[in-house]
Specification:
Strand content: 5-15%
CATH topology of one domain: endopeptidase fold (from Nostoc punctiforme)
Structural class: little secondary structure
Order of helices and strands: HHHEEEEEE
Radius of gyration: 72 Å
Distance between the termini: 194 Å
Largest sheet: 6 strands, antiparallel
Number of strands: 6
CATH class of one domain: Alpha Beta
């Protein structure tokens, strides 16, 4: 078997020459590697600083130009006054007034003033015997009328109610207020005060009084009671007491000044 002839060897391409060849390592030492652990160099050690003056006050910069001058700080500058500090405006904060609490005003107690009674002319009552107490002969049922029965019934219904100055019912009474209210139910209108009541109707002797008659006391005739018989009467004694039935001699015989029959 015949083999083909070998191919001819390829021609070597031309090599371009580096124009800087030989200049990269120009001046480099031939040997640049120092073995590790090699002995240190011998000879005197050069100081780090050379030429430092021994005078500490001398300037470190010895190479400044000789023509350099220094100036004192602030020398030759104009004196300028500092501008006044501008004060910030003061804002007036609103003042909140605390709420005013109205304290309750204690009203003073009202004391009822006594009713000034106009002076009344003296009432001429029939003369009464002096000495022994009069023998009252009037009794319930003896000569009294239907009006007197109504008067006594009303007066007894008020027993226990408080006596109040100037009151004429229905919850409280004074002496003339009780007699006025009692005779009103019987259809007879009496004046308001005891002195005025003593001047109306028919005067009667104390020995002849009957149920429903009015009996007056004291020199000014300022108190009155309603005769009920057997020496007893119903009246309002005075403020702080209660309407009650008791003897006509409650204030003594001399206090009795007369009696009248309203109708």
């Amino acid at each position: 078997m015949a083999f083909p002839d070998p191919e001819p060897a390829a021609a070597t391409p031309p090599t371009a020459q580096d124009p800087l060849a030989g200049s990269y390592d120009a001046g480099l030492p031939v040997t640049v590697a120092t073995p590790y652990g090699a002995a240190p160099a011998t000879g005197p050690i050069a100081p780090y600083l050379t030429g430092v003056p021994t005078d500490p006050t001398a300037s470190y910069a010895t190479d400044w130009p000789t023509g350099t001058t220094t100036a004192t700080y602030g020398a030759g500058l104009p004196s300028v006054a500092a501008p006044p500090a501008a004060e910030s405006p003061v804002t007036q904060l609103p003042v909140t007034e605390p709420p005013v609490t109205q304290l309750p005003v204690a009203e003073p107690p009202v004391t009822p003033l006594p009713i000034a009674q106009s002076p009344q002319p003296p009432v001429a009552l029939p003369p009464q015997p002096t000495g022994a107490a009069p023998a009252f002969t009037g009794a319930v049922g003896a000569g009294h009328t239907t009006k007197a029965e109504r008067v006594i019934a009303f007066a007894r219904a008020q027993i226990g109610r408080p006596c109040v100055w100037g009151a004429a019912g229905p919850g409280s009474f004074d002496a003339p207020g009780l007699s006025q209210a009692a005779w009103k139910v019987a259809g007879v209108t009496l004046p308001r005060t005891a002195q005025e009541q003593a001047g109306v109707g028919t005067p009667v002797a104390l020995a002849e009084v009957e149920a429903g008659d009015l009996v007056f006391f004291h020199d000014d005739l300022g108190h009155v009671g309603i005769w009920t018989g057997n020496g007893m009467m119903i009246h309002a004694p005075g403020p702080g007491a209660a309407v009650r039935e008791e003897s006509v001699f409650f204030a003594g015989q001399s206090a009795i000044k007369g009696a009248i029959r309203p109708a």
